[in-house]
Design brief:
Blueprint: H1 4-23, E1 28-36, E2 39-46, H2 62-71, E3 88-90, E4 95-98, E5 114-115, E6 120-126, E7 129-134, E8 139-144, E9 151-152, E10 157-161
Antiparallel strand pairs: 1-2, 3-10, 4-6, 4-9, 5-8, 6-7, 8-10
Amino acid sequence: MSDKTPHDSDVSFIRALAELLRANDLTELEVKREYGDNDRLNVRVSRRGEVVTVAAPASLSAPVIASAPAALAPAPAAPSDPASHPGAVTSPMVGTVYLQGEPGVPPFVSVGQSVKVGDTLLIIEAMKTMNQIPAPHAGVVKRILVEDGAPVEYGAPLVIVE
């Protein structure tokens, strides 16, 4: 009988999280509940699609960033704005950048290194979750635009891969 009650409430809780995700246009939500010593629930609800992370109830600059490339002609990117570079890999979320998997190990990539589609370029920690940022296309890493441990915003340029 006691096994059924937490299960039913957990299902309701997960449904409420899914509704919260949808209602607030979030991509991912993670919650940990502690019921007792060896009784806990860890839930991660996520959906696929364009990644937009809301870190606080503030307006995102995503629409401005998303509309900026449409205003640009197929002319070469201005060197002063790395985000407009055609090889720019931008941050899909707000978080903290890590260039290596753990302290003391080599970085995932370095300038001049060739990468294939899907190779990990760096990690962004968001809400205590480590998110690998893959190379969207094959090429050579021309510039690394962020420092290890630096905070990043949604749409910020991270790496140039040509």
